[in-house]
Amino acid sequence: MIKIFNHFVPRIVSLLFLSELLMLLASPYLAGAVRFAASDYRFVEAIPNFGASAIAFALILTFCMAAFGMYQMQSRESVHASLYRMFPAFGVGVPLVVLAFYLFPELFIGRGILSIAILFGFTCILFSRLLLLRYFKFHFLKKRILFLGDSELANECIDLTNANSFYERYDVVGFVPLLNNELTGHGAAVLPADQSLMDIAAKYSVHEIVISLKNWRGVNIPIQQLLECKVRGVAVTQIARFFEREANQIKISYLQPSWLVFGDGFNQGMVRALGKRLIDLLASLALLTVALPVMLITAVCIVLEDGGPVLYRQERVGKNGKTFMVLKFRSMRTDAEKSGNPQWAQVGDTRVTRVGRFIRKTRIDELPQILNVLRGEMSFVGPRPERPYFVKQLCEQVPFYDMRHSIKPGLTGFAQVRYQYGATVDDAIEKLQYDLYYVKNNSLFLDLLIIIDTVQVVLFAKGSR
């Protein structure tokens, strides 16, 4: 993993992104060389701002590939899945490139060069993806991990790399049991506890030792041996930190308050607040400009279906526990909660109208919340606001749940792009683990990644009910 502005990014994703960005950046130059191969025409010198044009070309297409999930490595990728994303990514990206050159004529590089550049860029990326998925295993990127302590927690981490990625991020050397913390059965080797950790690390070429313990009390932890390993170049990591890095989650089940208190993150300075507010305003105004026709059509469709109110106001919990009225397009019948008790939406919920079913699936029902963002009640990116009725229940049942209210709720959020719709306490726990990661590691860089991922979520109607 590579840490970029507090966010952990897989090394393979970073390499893939940079290599494909360079391919797209080189494509206009290669296209110009092919286009004028038979002449002495020096296109780079003759065409003004050619370098800026190449950068715009590469950035627009890379953004579209990211928006269509081509850099999401949470699932086992296949050639078919990669093509499924690549064709529409270029299908949207190419018109955007043409539009950019139309709006800024000084960037135009000629139809011939542009056409060849698109062909080169598409072919190079397609070929590199096919090679990546079929032949390369990236063994040089893998770490060799030794777990010290509890096998149940360690097994959860092992399952993480096998289930959530098309490539393996680390090899597990084995487990070393600790006194009063006996290991249970598992597939990996149990290494003798009477040997020095440094000897084991040297023998098995260990890169990192992960301490897999929920509670350190009553456990004889070999601090001196761990210190020896660390000063000799072997990383030593707590299980909570390991899971944060590899899964982009703060795992509640073995989270200690002291780890949050003395760890890094939770930066909420003035510069960060001003930058985030600026992004909120710019992103909201841009989205409002683009989505206004859709919002008007939606309002008409809601009125035509059942003549009820277009907007739905609902109390939600915001920053520091203060409540506010969130705005949504009404997607349910007017008597949806006639029983008087709030209810979570379920799969195939009969309370949802026909228009509501569509706007919920495409997230159009959330667009009026742009006004909440402009009023400062919400941010563009942050934990999704929940109703006070559910917040009270979840604060009683889920540890650390109230920490998500330390920042403004968002129109979109990290949990929304990484997890399905939540309708149970277990779902709330899973989403909270992503929300805590965002609260701890939030940055403008992470906000940008979430906004890009939101495009994919909307396009593929992920996680809606």
From TrEMBL:
Location relative to the cell: Membrane
Membrane spanning stretches: 12-30, 50-71, 83-104, 116-136, 278-304
Q: Name one GO molecular function term.
A: phosphotransferase activity, for other substituted phosphate groups
Q: Which domain of life is it from?
A: Bacteria
Predominant location of this chain?
A: membrane
Provide the family line.
Belongs to the bacterial sugar transferase family.
This chain belongs to which protein, by name? TIGR03013 family PEP-CTERM/XrtA system glycosyltransferase
